[in-house]
Design a protein that fits this description.
By secondary structure, the protein is mainly alpha-helical. It has 7 helices and 3 strands, in the order H-H-H-H-E-E-E-H-H-H. It has a domain of about 120 residues: minor pseudopilin epsh fold (3-Layer(bab) Sandwich). Its cofactor is Mn(2+).
Length: about 230
Amino acid sequence: MLSTKLSATVRPFVRKASGIGALRSKHTVPDLDYDYNELEPVISAKIMRLHHDKHHATYVANLNAAEEKVLAAQAKNDVAAQVALQPAVKFNAGGHVNHTIFWKNLIGEKNGGGQLHSSALKSAIEEQYGSLEKLSAQVNAKTAAIQGSGWGWLTFNPAIGRLDVITTANQDMASSVGHVPLLGIDAWEHAYYLDYNNVKADYFKNIWRVVNWKDVAGRYDDAVAKHNSLKN
C-alpha cells in the first residue's frame, strides 16, 4: 500500500491544498547581496551569472512546477502521483535551499571575505579543530572525496551539540540528516568548471578567501541558542 505521507524533507515545501485551485506563494530566486564580479578572482562574474541566474533559477522553476503537480494530485486524492513526485520536490527544494545558503555564505575579499573575527564560532573552531586552517583542510578533503556531485558542509550537529563536517550527495540538504547548515561549499561542476576546469582542488582552496564568516557565525549563534532552549 502506498503511503499518503510525504517525506520529512519534502513536506515543508508542499502547501496542502484547501480545494481545487487553492492559492500558494511561489518560490523565487533571492537577489544577491553583491555584484556578480565581487567574488573575483576566486569566482568569476561569468560563473556567478550562470550559477545564480540559470542553475538556481532552474531549481526554483522546477520546484514550483512540482509543487503545483503535488497540489493537483492532492486535490484528486491521487496518492500514487504524490509519491512519484517526491523525488522531484526533494531534489529541486534542496537545490533552492542549498544555493540560498551558499550565496549568503559568500562575500568579496574587499568587504571582509575570508576574515574570521573573534566570536563564539571562532572559539568553537579553535577548540574542536585547532585552527581555521585545519578545519578548512578537513572540509576540503571530505568535499573533494565526493563521488559525483554534492556539497561539503560545516554544520552544527544537535546530536552532539558541536560543530561537524559532513557531505551530502547531489542536492540533499544538511537538514535531511538532522544537521543545521552553517557553511556550504558547492561541489557541482557548474560552480567552478569555467574558472578551474578539472582542478577542483584549487576551487576548494580558494573559496575560503570569500567566505562570509559574519553570516556563518550568525547561523552558529542561532543554532546554539535553539539547541540550548530545547534542552531547558
